Amino acid sequence: MRHHREARGRCVLVIALVALACGCSRRQPQETGKGGGSPPSASARELRSADSFAQVADRAERSRALFAEASRVFLHPRCLNCHPNGDTPHQGMDLSVHDPPVVRGPDDKGVVGVQCTSCHQDHNLELARVPGAPQWHLAPRPMAWVGKSPGAICEQMKDPSRNGGRTLAQIIEHNAHDPLVAWGWKPGHDREPAPGTQEQLGRLIAAWVETGAECPSEGARP
Asked: 190: Cβ–Cβ under 8 A, 6 or more apart, which residues?
């Protein structure tokens, strides 16, 4: 029995030495992308900073990664609800149909007698549980995001025929400072806000433009 224990001990020692010589370890190597390492991960409520993508050496790959990170905001219900692919806005975290029933109307602000601003003021009404921000309205139909991938949203956002005629500089300004966009982080009444902050989103979009405004592949997900 003693001989068996000694033999087993020698086997364990040999295996450990072989693993050490091969560089084997329980620790997994840091995942890397094309042209450099990946930024650190972030929780569902956070956004990775634009600066954290500097380690992605390939410029085009970095641009795609920056937009993919920004798309975590675009694909959050706080944004999707007002970018529907039909005539009716959504609400809640499950993108349920707006209640009471409303329609976008000819200028995306409702119809006569039932306009968006009839209920949605320029600020949240906490007691009535009605969200609000300046110029509350739906995004035009060509700017619909519901059901789209980050790559599709990216191509749409760059296309003046589908982005309201905006330049890339105006897209940066819109995301970074528009008060209606800002509501996504101050939705009121215990609603879950969009990830990160509007300032972080603005910096991600600015860095995306600076690196060539490349779009993620169609199958890419944030």
From this structure: none
Element at 110 (helix H, strand E): strand 110-111
| Res 38: pLDDT | 73
Six token digits for residue 12: 């364990």
Based on the structure, what is the number of domains in the chain? Answer: 1
Q: Give the structural domain span for 101.
A: 34-210
- In which residue ranges of the chain is pLDDT below 50? 1-34
Whole-structure pTM value: 0.81
Residue 5 lies in a domain: no
HSE at residue 202, side-chain half, CA atoms within 13 A, is 14
Q: 187-218: buried (b, 16+ CB within 10 Å) or exposed (e) per residue?
A: bbeebebbbbbbebbbbbbbbbbebebbbbee
